Hints:
The chain is α+β, with helices and mostly antiparallel strands. The chain is 63% helix and 10% strand. The protein is elongated, with a radius of gyration of 31 Å.
Amino acid sequence: MKELIELLSKDIQVHEAGTGSLYVEYKGKKVRVADHEPNHTMKRMRGYADLEIYTKDACNTTLKTEIDVVEDIADFFEIEITNETLLKKSEENLQYKIDQSKMTASFEETMAKIQNTREEKIANLKPFVIENLDKIKEIINEAEVYSDSASNGTKRRKKRRNYFFNKMKEVFSIEVELSDVNDVIKAI
């Protein structure tokens, strides 16, 4: 918002407080833009504002957008807003939204591929698990007993997972994760 306000005129001075409040000065007039009530000590230090604009109410509901705030400031300071000023900012916002939508689409596509691959893997594993369910449950129990000697939960889970993986490789000559087998067993 600060950049957009500065685009109104070269003579505008905008100071940003640590709380996010903006103090705008132009030709001896002051405007305070904030989403909260002012700190009265700072009021005495900075001077009282001729106009205070709140962007949010006490319930954190947005009252004014950036464009609304800039329009209010321009009206108060009697500055004409040129199309160039708003066009520049709207083009930046549009480009940002386009970039965001591309990233979101790419992320969703990647997540869908990962999910499909996982579902395929589990579907292919299901007949094997059903066929060898008793032996697999026995290996899971052995892994539980083996992992009980570890000192904490993370080490127990790691020992259990590694034991299961190695035992499945030894007995069935198949590399499969314990979590995948557990998912199949739950689905049965």
